[in-house]
Amino acid sequence: MVANDRPQGPILLITDLSPRCDRAMDRAAALAQSLGTSLMALHVMDTPWLSKLAQPAWRSLQQDQLEQANKRLRADLANAPVNITVLVETGNPIEVIEQIAKQEQCSLIVSGTAREETLGRLVLGNTVERLARRTTTPLLVVRARPFAPYRKIVVAIDFSDGSRQALMAAHTLCADAQLTLYHAFDQVAGIYQLDQPTVTEEIAALIKKAKTFVQSTPGLDRELPIVVEHGSAQDTLPAYVRANDVELLVMGTHGETGVVRTAMGSVAEKLLTRAQCDVLIVPHTNH
Predict the structure, then answer these.
(1) How many domains are contained in the chain?
(2) pLDDT, tens digit, for every residue of 68-85?
(3) From CA 157, how far away is CA 165, in angstroms rounded?
(4) E strand or H helix at 256, and its extent?
(5) Rounded CA gap, 165 and 83, in Å?
(6) 3-state DSSP call for residue 69?
(7) What are 194-241's pLDDT values in tens digits?
(8) Owning domain of residue 49
(9) 103 by DSSP, 3-state: which?
(10) 101 plus 166 within the same structural domain
């Protein structure tokens, strides 16, 4: 996504067809409508190892499951106000999702999460966490029921190009929302060396740096609130999200393969599981 550009590719919804994915489905449809793009709904049936010994009865059963899944998806999305393509595939979920996202040039992947449920944690939750590490397409993980468009959004930054891309993606996805920049630092300042800045001085310097960061971001022509806190982001940021009723947390990652390498990227996976709000992970891409 690029600031001030409309997404060109469809939004890809991934679902395991359980009720917990209804929130992601509703959010994906609402975003597709507001952005003027289409929606692809994908359900992947992970081929069991027993299929290697498949008999005709197994193949018949699998085909029936595929048809039932397709029918269920179409029924669930029948009233969605956007153009919809329904896909039901078999194979490794991560590989299938990545293949379709790349093949269809999807602008966004949307998923629910089942972190709190044992069975869902093993299936959907594990898939989402693995996808967050690998995907080259922005990934939105939906937790809350979407009663309205996002209004309160926090973008976590570390002043890298990756976090700049995250900011631009948030601005594109929700141009009318309130965006707040958030930065945490955990250096122990002003204790061991007299010439080191105090925490208060460091916060002031980082706020100034964040303002410059915003001003140098192309396509962003507004001032943004800035929050800088002393502490570990994986601890301070979830607390800030809870205290301020944040609806969406946006984070960038760094690395061509989606492997997290920067300070912000290294805690992205932990924040994905700790933040009690929707989370958008924006992989770093080279332009």
Answers:
(1) 2
(2) 777 877 887 777 788 888
(3) 10
(4) none
(5) 28
(6) helix
(7) 566 788 999 999 999 999 999 999 888 788 999 999 998 889 999 999
(8) 11-142
(9) helix
(10) no
